[in-house]
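Practice problem: predict the structure.
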Amino acid sequence: MNDAKKIKPTPQLLLGIAALILGVILLLENLDIFRFSVPFAYWPVALILFGVYKFAQARQLPGYFLGFTFASIGILLLMDNFRIINFDLGHLWPLLLIFGGGAIVWQALAREENVHPTEARNTVSALAFMSGIERTCNSMDFDGGELSAVMGGCELDLRRAAMKNPRATLNTFAFWGGIEIKVPETWVVESRGIPFLGGFSDTTQAPPGPPEGTLVVRGLAIMGAVEIRN
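Answer:
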């Protein structure tokens, strides 16, 4: 019987891998064991790893699109650093229109689907791109989801939701934006996010009795903030 523990890609794991790779490169350079012409040319690897992680954890279109975008930009920057192609990040400004238009279309289609909902959604997915989004989930079988805020704000109210399973995972990503999550007083929160020039705060109170579920909040806040409260 194979009892090997399955390794899951998490922000902490990918950040650690990126730091290890960069550390090895710089150490070999300092010890003159191997000469790299531009050691810091490898920094886009962090974008690629994050994009792959975001794509792997995604459940709906916004998450896939974010992951693909970050990985693609990382690959292009890496190829430019090694003079394989001539690439300028300024050339990607049309991505703002593509990203914004895609978000608007996706949100419009999502609203169209919810005009006559037959049952409560068990997962949530929201992308706030240079805008603000407020969502409420009243599902009695909440099973997690993903929230992304890019130069915008996202608010999720789960205070009337409940879990049938003991745990649910909510993946978050805030880039120059903010995410606010309100949870029931009967839930326990495990905050596993990483802030980078930003904040990841959990101000929830301990349940007054036996917890009715555990919400695991993962993600990354880059020059942004994720706040969890009752």
